[in-house]
Amino acid sequence: MANSQKFDIAVIGAGPGGYVAAIKGAQMGKRVALIEKHHLGGTCLNVGCIPSKALLSNASIFQTIKRAERYGIEVGTPSFDYGKMHTRKEQVVNKLRTNLEGLLRSNGITIVRGAAQFVAPKQLKVVGEDNFWIHAEKIIIATGSEPIDVPAFPCDHRDILDSTSALDLTVLPRSIAIVGGGYIGCEFASLFAAFGVKVMLIEALPTIVQMQGKEISAALTQAFKKQGIEIRSDTSVESIEKGVDGLTIHLNNGEALGAEKVIVAVGRRLNVRGLGLEKAGMLEGTNGVIEVNEKMETQVPGIYAIGDITAIAMLAHVASHQGIVAAANASGLDTTIHYHAIPSVIFTHPEIASVGLTPEEAQRQKLNFSIGTFPFQALGKAVASCETEGFAQILSETETGKILGAHVVGNEASTLIAEMTLAINNELTLNCVIDTIHAHPTRSEAWLEAAFLAQGTPLHFPPKKRAGG
C-alpha cells in the first residue's frame, strides 16, 4: 500500500451525516475525501429511512383505496403485489444512490471505497475496493450504527429478522411478532398491519413510543388497537423457539405466542469497532460513544464525530446538521450546535411528530406552562379530506407565551411539525403564531387554533366553562 494521498478533510462514512459534511467542506474550498465501505447514503438511504418510507407510502395508498367509498368512489376489492412493492422500493433506493454519487462528484469530492482505520491522528489506512493511505489535516468520523442482535434469540435473517432484513421480504407472512415498541417497531407494525398481516407488538416499557409522552403514546395505542395490532407492553421476550409450524415466542409472563416471523427492533449498536481510535489518541465512551463538544470536536483536536456514534440524537436530520457544523469548524469557522429544537417524526398510521418539551418533561423541570390542544375533528380541511384522526398541541410558558414544545398526531404530521420547529428554534411566542396569517383551508391552521386555545381564547372550539358560569 505505497499509494498515499493528502486531503484537507477526510470523512469516514457516507451516510446523511458524512456526505453532508463532505459537501459542506467542499463548498468551503477544501479538498475532501469521503470514505465508505458499503453503499453511499449509509443506513438511512439504503436500509432505513428511505426504503421503509417507500413501503409505508405503498401502505398508505392501499389503505386510502380501501376507504375510497367514503369519497363516493367505487373501486371494488383492491389487491396488492408485495413483491412489486419491494421492487419499487429497490428502484427508489438505487435512483437516489445514483443521484447522490453524481452530487458528490459534482462537488469535486473524492469517493474512496473501503474500510478506514486510524494509524495516527491525521493518517488513515483504507482497505477494500480502494487500498491506500490517506493523510488529512482534519478527520470527521460518521460511521453510524447497526441493529442490535439479542444473544438469547439472534437474528438468522430468515425467520428472526432485524430492521434491515425485514426490508428484504418479498412475500408477506401471515403473522409477525415485533420485539420493541419504539419508532422502528411501530413503523413496521403499521406497515404490515396495513396489508392484513396479524401483528403482535411486544414492548418491555409500560407503553409504546414512551419517549413521546403519555398523550401521544395513548393516541397511537388506541389507533393500533383499531387496526387490529395486538400490543403487549411491560412485557419482555425470554426466548424464541423454532418449530415446523413457525416460531414460538416465550414471554416473561409465561405466555407463549405463535408467529411466522419475528422482527427484533430493540435498539442499535454504534459502529466504532475496527476504527483504531486508540491510535488516534481517542478513548471510547460508554457503549462506544464518541464524546464531542458543541463544535462536534472530540478530545483530539482536528478529529470530529457526528451522527449516531455521538449518541446525542440518533436521527438522520440531526446527523446532517452535525455534519454541517463539523465541516464548518474543520474548515476554519467557529460554529456551535444547539439541540433545543430537534423534530422527531414517526411514520406510523397515524403519523406522529413532535419537537421541544413534552408535558411530562415540562413538569419535571417545574415550569409553569399552558397547553393548547386542537382536534382535527374541528378543522375544516381535515373534515373535507376525511382525515380527522388526531390533534395538534402546543406547550407554552404561561407568563411569556414562549413556545416550549409541540406535538401532532394525524395526517401530514411529518410536514406540519416544521412550523413549530422553526418557532421553537427562534424562541417565538404564541402571539407570533397568532399574528401570522395561516392559509385556509389547510391543516396548518391547527397550530393557529392550538395557540388560541393555549391562551384560553379559542376561535373554532368551545371555550372552557368558567367557574360559576
- The share of residues in helices is 25-40%
Query: What's the mean pLDDT score?
Result: 96
Strand content: 15-25%
DSSP strand count: 22
CATH fold naming of the largest domain:
FAD/NAD(P)-binding domain
Count of domains = 3
Count of DSSP H/I helices: 12
Principal-axes geometry comes out as: globular
Q: What is the CATH architecture descriptor of the largest domain? A: 3-Layer(bba) Sandwich
Relevant CATH superfamily of the largest domain: FAD/NAD(P)-binding domain
Q: How far is it from the N-terminal to the C-terminal residue, by CA?
A: 84 Å
Profile the largest sheet: 7 strands, mixed
Walk me through the structure.
- With 469 residues, the protein is an alpha/beta fold.
- The protein has three domains: 4-147 and 269-330, FAD/NAD(P)-binding domain; 160-266, FAD/NAD(P)-binding domain, CATH 3.50.50.60; 350-455, FAD/NAD-linked reductase, C-terminal dimerisation domain (Enolase-like, domain 1, 2-Layer Sandwich), CATH 3.30.390.30.
- Helices cover 30% and strands 24% of the residues.
- The chain has twelve helices and 22 strands.
- It has helices at 18-27, 42-47, 49-66, 82-106, 183-194, 214-226, 316-330, 359-364, 380-384, 413-425, 430-434, 445-455, and strands spanning 4-12, 32-36, 110-113, 115-120, 123-127, 132-141, 145-147, 160-162, 175-179, 198-202, 230-232, 237-243, 246-251, 256-259, 261-264, 268-270, 303-305, 344-346, 352-356, 369-375, 391-397, 403-409.
- The strands form five sheets. Strands 1, 2, 3, 4, 5, 6 and 17 form a seven-stranded mixed beta sheet that branches. The protein has a five-stranded parallel beta sheet with strand order 8-15-9-10-11. Strands 18-19-22-21-20 form a five-stranded antiparallel beta sheet, with helices on both faces.
- A hairpin with a 5-residue loop joins strand 21 and strand 22 (403-409).
- Helix 3 (49-66) packs across helix 4 (82-106) and helix 3 runs parallel beside helix 5 (183-194).
- The radius of gyration is 24 Å and the shape is globular.
